[in-house]
Design brief:
single chain; nine-stranded mixed sheet; 14 helices; alpha/beta; 25% helix
């Protein structure tokens, strides 16, 4: 079946066009609502709209043949930022930057928060939810957090007891954990957290007993429901304010962090209805380059493509339920909806899967801003990274004066309001980070400087990708082959490391190579 026909089928099957009368479940405010949606591990070009001519010319390589009618609708009625980037393509470091508007050295998260590590979003950080709460917003968070230190503070049933002594001393999960009430929640009033990479068995904690069968905050709830479906229903319930969950005279700031399409990519963790409808063997008889389209992808490694794309489509479906509810309420047009992700997915590119590498499939993320009341629909060819989200959202919401001075990201709101503006300059580059690497991305080039993992004072592999001539990054260009380009990129890297107050800048690491600012 042709991709165009699959899309038409999707529009019929997954339509969110419920034409019921609009309900007023919010009054007394002209301030825009905020809804930040970021599925885990959704790569930039896994959306149907990228295959259409208006957008395809901005694609680096080829877009995926996925069915995403609701993401497409957001894109076509919003601003599509063509160069959304996960500066550190790993769950916890991205989330630390998103929440804080600061780089890892300042927010406290340099690696994934897992058992045995001390990574933790600092309690004294003024997170995005703190700032909107202080600005008079209802604040809510649904889904995965993965920013809190993982400690054995649970009993054998997964209930939080707050001590490692009996009955505590147990972990509820080795990756990610429950965020207890207090400063660690960063101003979140309504809290509905989903823990564990087990899509049909999410481990739920909430401060709303009505959402977890009467349980208390910190008591484990196991609804046994596909996590996007479960979260969407709870968000709709929150929006309808069925139990007085929020003050309807206030605007809301809501964050929704879905787990899929993150692994596992087996049938037990896949929405098989979406799989059979759009990606089964009647549509794609085998996993070949009609399904896994990028030229640098190994079909053997990408054998989970059906499962990955099915969960992309399923995530889109449940997003549609929430967006439809906002439409019925009559508030969608004055809700700033930001759709993005924490990082991409290699899906066989460079014979790799997952993320945490410098290549484009892991770094490139979607970034769509939908706000009909405040933005003209269109395309913004702008580099935007994780630390830029907080100040940009606050700028759009008219809260620029409330952005903390310690925030290191850029307020790019003006570039979304008017992509041709000359009031502010487009970023020339973004800082890229991995545990043992630093680099920069410009409109054309990727620079990567690696340290030797076994002897970190020694320089490792250092190279440039020309993403214009080589969109699939087949060729690593040595710095001596392009000396002028290398000089420009190394100067940009020095500037970005200084801006981030990065440990490499503080120690002037590899200062015989990296061109650090003199003051």
């Amino acid at each position: 079946m042709k991709f165009e026909n699959i899309v038409l089928t999707a529009l019929a099957v997954l339509s969110v066009g419920c034409q019921s009368q609009k309900k007023n479940v919010q009054s007394g405010t002209d301030k825009p609502n905020i809804l930040i949606i970021f599925p885990d591990q959704l790569r930039r070009y896994s959306a149907g709209f990228w295959s259409e001519p208006e957008y395809k010319k901005h694609v680096i390589g080829k877009p995926d043949p996925v069915v995403t009618p609701n993401i497409d609708k957001l894109a076509k009625n919003g601003v599509v930022v063509t160069q959304g980037i996960s500066n550190f393509p790993l769950c916890s470091p991205y989330r630390g930057m998103l929440m804080s508007g600061m780089y890892p050295e300042q927010n406290g998260i340099w690696n994934n928060c897992i058992k045995g590590r001390k990574e933790n979003l600092k309690d004294d950080v003024q997170a995005i939810t703190d700032l909107f709460y202080n600005a008079g917003y209802n604040t809510a968070y649904f889904g995965k957090t993965h920013w809190h230190i993982t400690e054995p503070l649970f009993d054998t049933k997964g209930n939080y007891v707050g001590t490692d002594k009996e009955p505590g001393g147990h972990y509820v999960n080795t990756y990610d954990t429950y965020v207890p009430k207090g400063r660690a929640r960063h101003g979140i009033e309504y809290f509905y957290q989903s823990v564990k990479d087990d899509h049909y068995n999410p481990h739920i904690y909430s401060n709303d007993p009505g959402a977890i069968e009467g349980k208390k905050d910190g008591e484990l709830h196991l609804p046994k429901v596909f996590s996007p479906k479960n979260e969407a229903s709870k968000i709709v319930d929150y929006l309808r304010n069925t139990r007085g969950q929020r003050d309807t005279k206030k605007p809301f700031c809501m964050m929704w962090a879905l787990n899929p399409p993150h692994s596992p990519w087996d049938n037990d963790n896949t929405d098989m209805e979406a799989m059979h409808a759009f990606y089964d063997t009647d549509k794609f008889p085998k996993i070949d380059h009609s399904l896994v389209v990028r030229d640098n992808a190994s079909l053997e490694v990408a054998k989970y493509a059906r499962n990955y794309f099915a969960n992309v489509t399923s995530t889109d479906k449940y997003m549609g339920q929430v967006l439809d509810e906002l439409e019925k309420m009559g508030v969608l047009d004055n809700t700033i909806v930001i759709f993005s992700s924490d990082h991409g997915e290699m899906l066989g590119s460079h014979e790799d899967e997952g993320k945490n590498v410098i290549e484009m499939e892991a770094m490139a993320i979607p970034f769509i801003v939908h706000w009909p009341k405040g933005l003209k629909k269109g395309i913004a060819d702008v580099l935007i990274g994780a630390p830029d989200v907080l100040p940009t959202v606050m700028g759009l919401a008219g809260l620029e004066s409330k952005i903390p001075t310690e925030v290191q990201g850029l307020n790019l709101a003006e570039l979304l309001i008017n992509p041709t503006t000359t009031k502010i300059k487009k970023p020339e580059s973004l800082l890229l980070m991995l545990s043992h690497s630093r680099g920069v991305l410009t409109d054309r080039y990727t620079l990567c400087v690696n340290e030797n993992k076994k002897a970190t004072k020694e320089l490792g592999d250092t190279f440039i990708y020309d993403n214009l001539k080589d969109p699939y990054q087949f060729t690593k260009i040595s710095l001596d082959k392009e000396p002028e380009v290398a000089k420009m990129l190394l100067s940009q890297l020095g500037q970005r490391l200084k801006q981030a107050n990065d440990p490499w800048y503080k120690t002037k690491k590899f200062n015989d190579l990296i061109l650090y600012p003199k003051n």
